């Protein structure tokens, strides 16, 4: 449906938050979102990566599940303050947040594609020319449902990783370099190999 007006639409890079832009807490081979402002730490190279993506012509939109708010474990104010700090350090264009727990989930909660689609409507994004970078299967599945190319950051979690991503990398820096190697955004929508097999680097 977006293809018809693709010339007027912009490509985006959607970024998951925890494990992509911010350092998650690791316990027992799993990762957890920070629950306090003290624990909220941004990867040192995140600002430069986002700057490079924007310079290449991408909108950069964070899409993050924060179910600890829906579960009453973390106050929404705390997450909102985290995002004030994130925006101050990293030049993202927008942040889409879903506070729902698994039980409360609508299509906005990843692996649903609702946050990506809402951002696409608001910003005029060509989802088919866009990328989603994440560290969980739910990020890769949300990308698939939205029609975006998925890049998986493998942080070595103990659960089985996703299989439908276009590339597997180990950091936002590698994800950024992989996306930028695909060419300028104007060329991306013409690339035939966007959903080709995993390019592990
Ligand atoms: Mg994550």
Notable features of this structure?
binds magnesium ion, 7-stranded parallel beta sheet, 201 residues, 7 helices, two-stranded antiparallel ribbon
List the ions, cofactors and other small molecules found in this model: magnesium ion
Strand order of the largest sheet: 5-4-1-6-7-8-9
CATH class: Alpha Beta
Number of domains: 1
Q: What's the overall geometry?
A: globular
By DSSP (H or I, 4+ residues per run), the number of helices equals 7
What share of the residues lie within helices? 25-40%
Along the chain, the helix and strand elements come as: EEEHEHHEHEHEEHHE
Percent strand: 15-25%
What is the alpha-carbon Rg in Å?
Answer: 16 Å
Main beta-sheet annotation: 7 strands, parallel
Number of separate strands: 9
Structural class computed from helices and strand pairing: alpha/beta
Mean pLDDT: 90
Oligomer state equals single chain
Poorly predicted tracts of residues: 186-197
